Amino acid sequence: MRVKFWGTRGSLPSPKTPQSVENCVRTLLREFLESGYSRPDDIDPFLATLPPHRLGGFGGNTTCVEVSTPQQRLVIDGGSGIRLLGYELLKGPLGRGEGELDLLLTHFHWDHLMGLPFFVPLFIPGNVIRVHAVQPFLPQVFQTLFKKPYFPVPLEKIGATIEYYHIKPREPIAFKDITVTPYQLDHPDPCWGFRFDCGGKSYAHCVDSEIQRVAPEELGPDLPLYQNVNLMAMDAQYTLLESVEKINWGHGSAAVGLEIALREGVDRVAFVHHDPASDDNKIACVEEQTRKFYNKQVKMLRDRGRPVREVEWMFASEGTTIEL
Fold it and tell me: Angle at the Cα of 323 (from 319 to 324), degrees rounded to 5?
């Protein structure tokens, strides 16, 4: 499987302001000269010394994730990131009105739907878009989304054929070579994560979640979402302190996510759903705080004589692609 993040922000798109871009360019040019560089050929070596957040940053689009194999492509959520994915898909059958696509929706908060009216394959006659969700009122959501005064093009005129599928909680469903199983997350209004299994590899999509249930007995029937997966995307909108201050807001912290990952044998974690109020520097600071927390946790476990299966983790950026 290949997992690509087309949107990693939470709650609201957060594009950089012209002033913030200007400040960044000015700072980098100053550092370039102060580092002793002066020639055009020095640009690439200088940029190679910078951490990723100093260059492109973490991105500003809301949640959209593509999961693909040689036989299948699945898309999770229709946040603003799905607009860019749509342009990419136009290069294939969906651009000719000959394509099919399966879209899985975790829940219906606006930041996970707002990109759909600007997803171009929806407007091309001949395309078939199959939309899947655990919530039973999926058709009504699309009728509201494509309706005046919210959007000028009514649903019956968008072009593509939309098919709606109600999937059952915790029951696997096959999409060619991928098996998908929905599990409930901890979020206001029911939100469902998805576990993807294909060829002995697994990806768990755990966004949005406050991660209020941590212990195995608390997670109960939803525990398999986290067990022995190769990659897990997890909500880390807040720092640990912020998550305490914002109880019942529906979003988690990386520290709690790592606690589950260490216990349940997760290989890799990509933290996403970054707070729209946080700029790239703050997210990088949170990433560093998380690294200190993780190292402390691993040391504590080893000091207690407990076996530790270390976790590879990162704060994902828009465009991050991971092969499993």
Answer: 140
